[in-house]
Here is the input.
Amino acid sequence: MTALSELGLSSYEEKVYRTLLVTGTATATELSAASSVPKGRIYDVLNGLEARTLIQSQSTDPTRYIAVDPETAVDRLLAERTDELQREWNRYHELAATIHSNLPPTPAADGSVWLGTLGSDEMNTAIRQHVQTATRSVRGTVGPPYEHASWETLRSEFDAFFGAMQTDVSVSLIFSDEVLTTLPETFPELVKSKSVDISISVLPEIPVSFDIIDQTTTMIDIPNPRGGADRFGVVGVKETDIVAEFERQFQQLWSDAIPLIG
Here is the structure.
């Protein structure tokens, strides 16, 4: 690879440009013969060089071509290459940001705690990966910190939750009265549009938000210590006795709740 090719010239373009530096002005036919560039390619090569302002055409018959001076040509090629590399850097930077947003947050050493605020890309990814493990049932309570969130924030987690759900999974959710006030009037239609079996009931208050996947895993919301309007993170538990206790608590809450949907 030559220095000019590293700056972006093809082998034919380099041959024609170098030939013009030797011959001065020349026609396309003369350049084809002198540079060994095939006649079928010479005009494409000349047009490309002229478009990049590395050569100039003269209004003669036949048209003659002349090269710009080497210093100017190299400066122009360098500017082109710099712009190209900058675009590539921007593309990779955007790609890295996309990959970062689609990866789950790094768990603690015991693999049980994830930090993330309501509606964040990290938590939405964690929710999707958590829910997609369900094969039979998902049960959950929806209270703090969702009670103080906007529907726009809740919608992103709603979409993450149901978007990852397998169609043959049974879903049972208990909402607090305060969560209901944040939901749009179209919420029942949104729920019914999902291709899973969903039942929702309501209680006046819910002390903590959690879910249970297939009676084997529970994920518990950790409220932000500075206030209940956001989440600090979630903790995942697979300890059999703990999951069983959350299942028992859910069943008791479910028996006291008022059916809303399903």
In short: Residues 3-100 form a domain with the Arc Repressor Mutant, subunit A fold (CATH 1.10.10.10).
